[in-house]
Design goal:
Layout: E1 5-8, E2 11-14, H1 15-29, H2 37-52, E3 56-61, E4 70-74, E5 80-85, H3 90-105, H4 119-122, H5 128-135, H6 142-162, H7 176-185
Helix pairs in contact: 1-6, 2-3, 3-6
């Protein structure tokens, strides 16, 4: 029998321990049966806050012309800010946020964003102190990125398997042909 060991920070975790951590985190989400991907995204921030014992803010923003889709930074006041690509798909956003959560759970240090990587373009709204803080962080190794991606995949699989999560589309966001079909199937909430 072959036992897989996952090197996490300076801790080795076997497959059973990794599965138990995944179970624990998925249980911590405690989503209702009517939860959407958007609700799950909000809950990622709350779970991170509970795990860190600190305030966590989620910020969805366009991330054009950068190789990043997400990053986590810690402010001088102890607040964590998780930046996530403003994708039209909440499922995609959930995957990015779970990847950031996975880095935390696996004990990885935050990703570095050097000035040469377009940090000002990535987050032009950041104050200069924050730019220096973010730019001074260490970079993830390929193994850490792979570990975080694999663990995030496990989390999203378990969350979507356990819940019946769906994309939340409000009537004003739906395309006209989708609205015509929806109206034929049942009552649609009125526009405000």
């Amino acid at each position: 029998m072959k036992i897989a060991l996952w090197a996490i920070g300076e801790i080795a975790m076997n497959e059973r321990e990794r599965r138990e951590l995944c179970d624990q985190v998925v249980g911590q989400f405690n989503l209702s049966h009517t939860a959407t991907y958007r609700d799950a995204c909000r809950r990622v921030g709350e779970v991170m806050s509970e795990r860190l014992g600190a305030r966590v803010e989620l910020r969805f923003m366009p991330m054009r012309n950068t190789h990043l889709s997400g990053a986590t930074a810690r402010l001088a006041n102890g607040t964590y800010v998780v930046y996530c690509a403003k994708s039209p798909s909440w499922y995609h956003r959930l995957g990015i946020l779970l990847h950031e959560l996975a880095h935390l759970l696996l004990g990885h240090q935050p990703t570095a964003l050097g000035p040469g990587e377009g940090l000002r373009h990535f987050a032009p709204h950041l104050p200069s102190k924050m730019v220096r803080l973010v730019a001074g962080r260490t970079t993830h190794t390929r193994d850490e990125e792979r570990e975080a991606e694999e663990f995030a995949d496990e989390l999203i699989e378990r969350l979507t398997e356990r819940q019946n999560l769906v994309e939340a589309v409000t009537p004003t966001e739906a395309r006209p042909h989708v609205m015509r079909i929806a109206e034929g199937l049942g009552p649609v909430p009125k526009k405000r």
